[in-house]
Amino acid sequence: MTKDLQQKKEQLKKQLQEIKNLERKKLIEKHYPKFKKLEGNCYKKKNHCGSPKKPSDYWFKYTKVLEIKEEDIFYDNMDNKVLSRFRGVSFDKFGIRQENSYVHLLGKKITEKEFNKAFTKQLSRAKKLLTKQTLTK
Fold first, then answer.
1. Which distant-in-sequence residues (6+ apart) come within 8 Å of 50 by Cβ?
2. What Rg, from alpha-carbon coordinates, does the chain have?
């Protein structure tokens, strides 16, 4: 490749990156405020493993969104829509954990009161487990 062609190629790459940066900025300006409003909200989702056959094969997963940053916003080319990641806390019958997931997987919005009630119940289960394990040692 000649030096002239190489320079043109570099210029085009630079212009393309500037366009991508501008598109990203516009995407964030338009969609970030709506996703940011999800912070502090609580959600509940029916969950299961494998192929559930009876109602007892399902359980609820509860999630509270704690943080969404601008860099979490992205465009999903497969579904042609804007999505976002988030950080939060979640729990279900298997335990409590830090959550790093996507907002479109959250489930149904619930009140903080419902979330806290379920969380208190989960902590009570954990306390009973700890007590049982302590007694058996």
1. 57
2. 23
Our measurement of the distance from residue 14's CA atom to the centroid of its chain's CA atoms, rounded to an integer in Å, reads 33
Task: Tell me if residue 133 falls in helix, strand or coil.
Answer: helix
Query: Is the CB of residue 67 less than 8 Å from the CB of residue 86?
Result: yes
Say what the pTM is.
0.80
68 with 99: CB under 8 angstroms?
no
**Contact call for residues 91 and 122 (beta carbons, < 8 A):** yes
Amino acid in position 31: H
Q: Which tens digit of pLDDT belongs to each residue from 69-118?
A: 999 999 888 888 999 999 999 999 888 899 999 999 999 999 999 999 99
Tokens representing residue 5 in the block:
């062609």
Judge residue 89's burial from the number of C-beta atoms within 10 Å of its C-beta, 0-12 exposed, 13-18 middle, 19 or more buried: middle
Single out the residue of 106, 94, 124, 125 nearest to residue 63, CA to CA. 106
* Cβ atoms within 10 Å, residue 121: 11
